[in-house]
Amino acid sequence: MGVEAEGAGVEKPGMNGMHGIARIVMTAALAACTITAAAFVNPALEVSHRARAMHPGEVVVLEVRARAPLADLSATAFGHEIRLFQDASDGVWRGLVGIDLTTEPGVHEVVVRASSAGGGQAEVVHALDVAPKEFPTRHLKVAPNYVDPPAEVIERILREQEETAAIFRSASPERLWRGGFARPVPGRSTSSFGRRSVFNGEARNPHSGTDFRAGKGVPIKAPNAATVALTGDLYFSGKVVILDHGWGLYSYFAHLSAIDVAEGDVVEQGDVVGRVGATGRVTGPHLHWTVRLNDARVDPLALMELLPAD
Ligand SMILES: [Zn+2]
Questions:
Q1: Residue 252's domain spans which residues?
Q2: Which of these three, 117, 133, 149, is where a domain ends?
Q3: What residues have CB less than 8 Å from 228, skipping those under 6 apart?
Q4: If you measure from the C-alpha of residue 135 to the centroid of ligand 1, how many angstroms do you get, rounded to a whole number?
Q5: How close is the Cα of 209 to the center of ligand 1, in Å?
Q6: pTM (2 d.p.)
Q7: Ligand 1 centroid distance, CA of 261 (Å)
Q8: 3-class SS at 160?
Q9: Centroid of ligand 1 to alpha carbon of 6 (angstroms)
Q10: What are the CA-CA distances from residue 58 to residues 87, 98, 126, 248, 299 (Å)?
Q11: How many Cα neighbours within 13 Å face the side chain of 293?
Q12: Of 256, 251, 190, 266, which Cα lies nearest the Cα of 219?
């Protein structure tokens, strides 16, 4: 709910000597707020959300409707700043929230703050009720050195994990993505997001992306506009391309046979960034697509379903 001029008019002890002056200042402040409030009716914000489902690994579209033109609008969720833009088609402010794969079920708060051109302020706390989800387990057979890596590659693995983690923790200030997200390869997904992976009988991290059926050499197309944040050849992921769509949204493509872009390149939706392959810890050629949203691991299928390409 909106809170305006909180504390104004409250008499603080020990201010008796200044009482008269303080009262006049506060009265003036209240008058200013009253005028603002008239133009910026409180609660001026209507906050809602859309999602495919409300459980770990899902994407949430946060929608804010304001009754007055806003000078500023910001939100926080899961400890991250959520940026919002005003959709020219309907005037609604929209932003994306990611519910990480390991989010505890229960009510999580999104705090939305806005100020109007006249200086009025409003704050709305919006609840996201996250339901529990059990992800299935899959058993895979891979080369033994991908289950218990030899000692000489441990340092490399840690370095690569830190490098990619640092990218995912950051959020570029410019939003490059627009409209909907397109399928990077024509093949069907195997809907394997979140599955517990057991490699050669040993449990490993949950699958933080979605796999798509595709043969070696199939072009991988950028699902939306981005800059290329990283290209490389990583121990587990093989040849990879990380696309930075801006505002903390990333696409990570793994196991490529070839990379067609360089770090710093700007790509548009549909541009070819690489080719499907079977490099790294895999059982055969396929495309692995991870989406990171403000560091949360979310299902790319949720992103495509919520924001479909034309
Ligand atoms: Zn995968």
A1: 137-306
A2: 133
A3: 241, 242, 243, 244, 261, 262, 263, 264, 265, 266, 267, 273
A4: 15
A5: 6
A6: 0.83
A7: 21
A8: helix
A9: 50
A10: 22, 6, 17, 16, 6
A11: 25
A12: 256
Question: Separation of 144 CA from ligand 1 center, angstroms?
Answer: 18
Pairing type for strands 106-116 and 121-130 reads antiparallel
Per-residue burial over 1-22, b = 16 or more CB atoms within 10 Å of its CB, e = otherwise:
ebebbeeeeeeeeeeeeeeeee
Say how many domains are in the chain.
2
Decide: helix, strand or coil at residue 34: helix
Q: What is the whole-number distance in angstroms between the Cα of residue 305 and the centre of ligand 1?
A: 19
Q: How far is the CA of 190 from the centre of ligand 1 (A)?
A: 9
At 143, the pLDDT band (50, 70, 90 cuts) reads confident
- The label of the residue with tokens 């990619």 reads 164
Q: The tokens of 112 are what?
A: 């939305």
Q: What is the pLDDT confidence band of residue 191, given thresholds at 50, 70 and 90?
A: low
Q: How far apart are CA 70 and CA 51, in angstroms?
A: 25
Same domain as 276, residue 127:
no
What separation in Å is there between the alpha carbon of 115 and the centre of ligand 1?
43
The answer to whether residues 85 and 175 touch, using CB atoms and an 8 Å cutoff, is yes
Together in a domain, 297 and 168: yes
Is the confidence at residue 254, as pLDDT, over 50? yes
CB-based burial label for 216 (10 Å; 0-12, 13-18, 19+) = middle
Q: Are residues 54 and 171 in the same domain?
A: no
Q: How do residues 280-290 score in pLDDT, each as one tens digit? A: 988 899 999 99
242 CA from centroid of ligand 1 (Å):
15
**pLDDT for res 41:** 46
